[in-house]
Write a structure and sequence with these properties.
mainly alpha; 94 residues
Length: 94
Amino acid sequence: MLLLMGAGVITAIPLLLFAAGAKRISFTLVGFLQYVAPTIMLILGLFLFHEPFSLPQLLSFILIWIALIIFSLSRSWELLRKRKLNSKPEFQKM
């Protein structure tokens, strides 16, 4: 029973540290780190720990990153379009 309670505390500590750290940086950086962290773990697993990595896993990884790039680009284009619409000068009537 003591081991079970200890596991709960050990699980909560990283979450509390993440919440404290996320308050100190911008949301953009938090989002970027959320994208990059799994990729860094994959690279560490492959090259440091020599984990097996099959072709279907590689294809899945590539498809996920393609989807993330498409989503990010579409969101960026939408924000740029909104900025351009909001920054158009208004003509004064004479």
